[in-house]
Amino acid sequence: MTETETASFGYEDIAADEKVARVGAVFSSVAKKYDVMNDAMSAGMHRLWKDTFVRRVKPRTGEQILDMAGGTGDIAFRLAKSGAEVTVADINQDMLDVGVERAMQRGIDGLVWSCQNAEALAFPDRGFDAYTIAFGIRNVTHIDRALAEAYRVLRFGGRFFCLEFSTTTWPGFREVYDAYSHKLVPRIGQMIAGDADSYRYLIESIRRFPPMPAFEGMIREAGFTRTKVEPILGGLVAIHSGWKA
């Protein structure tokens, strides 16, 4: 008898093959209010983090960029301003639908929208100059498989950039943020999105995500070189990067 593989779903451990559906239900529930909630939860700071993130990517005209877990288009819209050719991929069609609608409202053309599983991308080897993923990698079931796929679809010399929540190392701030996130964020989620449980999961998933040094090690194990971590607010958020040599 083989032991069932498990994966984290917030603070709960579930069968690994259940996670995709469970996470999918979370994002389908919050899709229409996702960006409003980001503003409410971060007091708008997520916009600054994303601006910084895209500046680090340094997108250029004509580059092929894959924005994984790109859902509602926040990162893709920023990348596209450079003239890069951006493919927005997400496992959740409801999130993509919101992104397409937002792009139409903004008059943004030329983006490719594709429903994809980060662990098994339907793209050929070495097709992209850059791979970005913002606030999405902690939701995949097998992070190592997603990193391996990122490496596979990048050209030699291609760059990997990940923006993700982590654990702040600032004394005092960590305790304040923990109290805020666990007690207030689900309430905000209930008021704005009518869904406290989904936002409780999203906060718990941050706590279960590997700390910055461990995640950097996973990026190196996937084959990336010149890896780097740039903490923001002491590591509350971090920009991870690496290159495919």
Produce a short descriptive summary.
46% of the residues lie in helices and 23% in strands. It has 245 residues and is an alpha/beta fold. Helix 2 (34-42) packs antiparallel against helix 7 (173-193) and helix 7 runs antiparallel to helix 8.
Walk me through the structure.
This protein has 245 residues and is α/β, with parallel strands linked by helices. Helix 1 crosses helix 8 (196-208). The chain has 9 helices and 9 strands. A hairpin with a 2-residue loop joins strand 1 and strand 2. The strands form 2 sheets. Strands 5-4-3-6-7-9-8 form a 7-stranded mixed sheet, with helices on both faces. Helices cover 46% and strands 23% of the residues. It starts with 5 loop residues before the first strand and ends with a strand.
Largest sheet: 7 strands, mixed
Determine Rg (CA atoms, Å). Answer: 17 Å
Q: Could you name the ranges where pLDDT drops below 50 across 5 or more consecutive residues?
A: none
Tell me the name of the CATH class: Alpha Beta
Specify the CATH homologous superfamily: Vaccinia Virus protein VP39
CATH architecture field:
3-Layer(aba) Sandwich
Question: Any idea what the shape is?
Answer: globular
| Secondary structure category | alpha/beta
The number of distinct structural domains comes to: 1
Summarize model confidence as the mean pLDDT: 90
Q: What features would you highlight for this structure?
A:
245 residues; seven-stranded mixed beta sheet; globular
